[in-house]
Design a protein that fits this description.
Blueprint (H helix, E strand, L loop, with lengths): L1 E19 L4 E25 L3 E14 L4 E14 L5 E7 L5 H5 L33 E10 L4 E10 L9 H6 L18 E10 L4 E13 L14 E15 L2 E13 L13 H4 L6 E12 L4 E12 L4 E15 L2 E16 L5 E17 L1
Antiparallel strand pairs: 1-2, 1-16, 2-3, 3-4, 4-5, 5-6, 6-7, 7-8, 8-9, 9-10, 10-11, 11-12, 12-13, 13-14, 14-15, 15-16
């Protein structure tokens, strides 16, 4: 058994602005709050057996989890078994964080990351305004992966994975009772094979991992049947979706350059553009392209073996839901002990909805966040 803990103190200054010309609405609000929190606690169980079999379970507690007071979240992030034929070929089954871009697998390993507040689509304190699976696959249930030497110092790595439809399709207890006559089971995917997640990643890295480059792909469907996080619904209830990802990392002379790029494309045809029953249809029908683009870049410098500083910039441009997000961040850390790190971070987070070329409806939220954290592996 092992674990990790990241405990924080954060202060936030929040400014919100809403305008609607047709309704004559012009609204501003300023809020300030601060709090201590256990940002994340992970309890991990791992075991290795004969015949090259390994098991792993990660139980995660977020944001001061307390079941009695209904605070925070508790969940199993990963629960899988793996059969290995060496570095070249491994079979995993269970609940897996899929290898889509390198940092998707690393997103929950907070003490290892230099950041306190991660890039938007990895950070549950920031991503509640949109569905994270619009950008990243959250779960796979089978994965084949491996690594092959192609030169003395160069390694090729690959993964192929499959899973259920996005989480919004998955039945909960209420759905299960409603559809009991069909024998649907809570926690399962009621869809056919067409909507299932399929994906892969290929990459190269040096043996020392001072250089890493990867390319990722997924195909699944975006559920637009009933969600407050979606600006408009598709008449067919779903849109075919592909995700393309690029990740890179270069380390040199104490510097570490890290970044990711994600493109999400949709198959939108005339059938999906029949917005007769949607109130804001005239605005949306002017749109010719439907996609999401996200990228972030981070430059970290190790002042010494124990002290580091970094700057990071993150952008999300969601044309299908008219959402724009920009993040700017500065941070630093000090390794008090090998497994014990103190971190500080400043983050400016700006998110905006805009409908119509003349900003008929405009919503903007600006957050300035100051955070201190202590992280430990145990």
């Amino acid at each position: 058994m092992m674990g990790s803990l990241q405990s924080i103190y954060m202060h936030r200054d929040i400014t919100s602005h809403v305008t609607n010309d047709e309704m004559g609405l012009n609204f501003n609000e300023n809020l300030t709050n601060s709090s201590f929190a256990v940002q994340q606690l992970d309890i991990m169980f791992t075991n290795e057996f004969e015949y090259n079999i390994k098991t792993f379970v990660d139980l995660t507690f977020n944001w001061n989890y307390d079941s009695e007071n209904e605070w925070g979240q508790l969940g199993i992030q990963e629960a899988w078994a793996q059969y290995s034929l060496g570095d070249k070929l491994n079979f995993q089954f269970g609940q897996i964080i899929p290898r889509f871009n390198y940092n998707n697998e690393m997103r929950n390993k907070l003490p290892i990351l230099p950041y306190i507040i991660r890039p938007v689509y990895y950070e549950n304190i920031l991503n509640s305004i949109f569905n994270v699976e619009d950008l990243m696959p959250s779960k796979a249930f089978i994965q084949i992966h491996g690594m092959l030497p192609i030169m003395s110092n160069i390694r090729f790595d690959y993964s192929i994975f499959a899973g259920n439809s996005e989480d919004s399709y998955i039945l909960n207890d209420r759905d299960s009772r409603a559809f009991l006559i069909n024998d649907d089971i809570s926690g399962t995917d009621p869809n056919g094979t067409k909507q299932k997640l399929l994906g892969s990643r290929i990459g190269i890295h040096t043996a020392s991992e001072s250089v890493r480059l990867g390319f990722s792909f997924t195909h699944d469907y975006d559920n637009r049947q009933d969600s407050i996080l979606k600006l408009w619904k598709s008449p067919t209830g779903e849109l075919e979706r592909i995700r393309l990802g690029v990740d890179m990392n270069f380390s040199f002379s104490g510097f570490e350059l890290d970044g990711e790029f994600i493109y999400v494309g949709y198959n939108v045809d005339d059938e999906h553009l029949d917005f007769k029953e949607i109130e804001n249809a005239p605005l949306l029908m002017k749109q010719k392209e439907y996609y999401i683009i996200s990228y972030y870049g981070s430059l970290l410098y190790n002042i010494s073996n124990d002290i580091f500083i970094y700057a990071r910039y993150n952008v999300i441009d969601n044309t299908i839901d008219h959402l724009s997000i920009k993040d700017k961040s500065l941070g630093a850390g000090y390794k008090i002990l090998p497994n014990f790190v103190a971190k500080v971070q400043y983050l400016n987070h700006d998110q905006a909805y805009e409908i119509g070329n003349d900003k008929i409806l405009y919503y903007d939220k600006d957050i300035n966040m100051y955070v201190f954290a202590l992280s430990i592996l145990f």
